[in-house]
Amino acid sequence: MSLWPVAAVTFKEGIRNKAIYGISVFALLMLGASLLISGMIMQEVGKVMVDMALSTVSLSGLLLVLFVGINLMAKDLDKRTIYMVLSRPISRSQYLFGKFLGMVLLIVATIALVSLFALAAIALTKLRFPDYFLHFSWGLIFLSIALTTLSLILLSALSFLFASVTSTSFITLVLTIISYLIGHGINDVKALVEAPQAVGIQVAPSTVKLVQGAYYLFPNLSLFDIKIQAAHGLSVPLSTIGWTVAYGLGYTAMVMILASLIFSKREFP
Amino acid sequence: MRRIVPIVLLCALLPLHVATLRNAGREWKALPQGEETAYTIPGPVLKLTSLEFDGVAADFMFLRALVFYGSTFERTEKPRVKEWEWRRLYNDLAAATDLDPYFLDPYYFAQANLTWEGNLVRETNLLLEKGSQYRDWDWMLPFYTGFNHFYFLKENDQASVYLMEASRRPGATPLIASLATRLALKGKRTENAIFFLREMLRREEDEEVKKTYRIRLEALSGILALERAVELFREQFGYLPTSLDSLVEAGLISKIPIDPYGGKFFISYDGSIGTTSDLR
């Protein structure tokens, strides 16, 4: 397998990126703030703490994908260093999948690190206010982090697709951010246009079709978000997790195959 | 030498920067300001724009309400919180519970403040019903709704419906069910209110809220004692007492209880007990 060398180089390059330090400092500050804020809550200290911790993990991952991940691939194209790589005995799709594998490793490593801080912050608060953690489950918290990781991998795959189509990393960044925004809104928008009477608005039938089309085109990132359930210790059925994981893996695979098809045919100036 | 010029320039600009910022800031403060803090972005819009961070957004909406409410305690004017400000608090809490309908604190805060002080009883009940729908394991929310119907809105039938609902949920004391049936009995308002408050006090952990409950309990106990004395007086003499002093003179009570809200108790023309403070 010639994927591993590329993956290892990508991972090392990512780890050396200064943005990682920034993200870690950000995560620590957020968690520090959450320790302060949880002291202001009257009843559901546990809920607020878990909210803050899981959101910190999510946001750190998002920053990683947007500001480190995109550069890993796009820099090779921007700075033309890709010629050096492609002159070696390695196919273009091997290069692409190797890069992606390295990025997946980087996401997992960063999330693991930030989660460690986050879990420590939760445990600390739980020690301080044990009575306010009535509906609490470590299992759900781990599950939520795992699903967040999967959604970040999906988003990163999309950024690889955009990088293989576009010419500059800036356009890739913009497209990835737009996909993220649509991905988190599409669930609510679909629910809205399918039942507009609930809020008393009129929706044209063509709009409904358009949104339903977009629903299948764009990733539905809301599915991976079980932060509220984790915060309240509400049960999440195993079948829900199963279908979500299958959807995430399937979508990622499709996006990466499409990316490699486009990337193999791409002509470099 | 070449370096000195930019450094001198920088040093000269620094006081200018401070001065301009101060003046501009002062001018800006003097501009006519709308009541923009009164505006809360509606829940559904927040839900859509907060992406995957709706839980944290709910926390912040709640904190916004909490911080604002806390800041009113520094005021000296009366009423301390204006009517539109209560609305604003209600909107914040409604938005917080749109973002995360399972979040207990906004409901709890609304019950503790919007009803007693803010007079937004129907609105609070709307919130509580939303919470009760989602937190279907929690007997407190229908219990509070029932209390509001009974105490503020004087709708005993509605109150007993909610109390019945509360009594079916796990952890509810069996007393609630008996209270629900007792509400059907007319004329026991004060006793029932004391009963409700004792239960709320027993469940409460926040010292501030406990204090307000205790004061109210004290007032209601005074009213109850007076009501009983009036009843005895009527049985003994065949007519209603004209003043509270006649109760003392008849030896039915040793002294007139003190209204902890600073008012004075009195007897209305129909023999019911009122207070000049109106219990607030």
Automatic annotation (TrEMBL), chain A:
UniProt name for this protein: ABC-2 family transporter protein XapB
Residues annotated as transmembrane: 20-41, 53-74, 95-124, 136-155, 160-182, 241-263
Domain of life per record: Bacteria
PANTHER family found in the cross-reference section: ABC TRANSPORTER PERMEASE, SLL1107 PROTEIN
Keyword annotations from UniProtKB, A to Z: Membrane, Transmembrane, Transmembrane helix
High-level lineage: Bacteria, Pseudomonadati, Thermodesulfobacteriota, Desulfuromonadia, Desulfuromonadales
Organism the protein comes from: Desulfuromonas soudanensis
CC terms in the record's Gene Ontology section: plasma membrane
Keyword Transmembrane: yes
GO molecular function (one): ABC-type transporter activity
UniProt keyword Ligase present: no
TrEMBL record, chain B:
Organism from which the protein derives: Desulfuromonas soudanensis
Name by which UniProt lists this protein: Uncharacterized protein
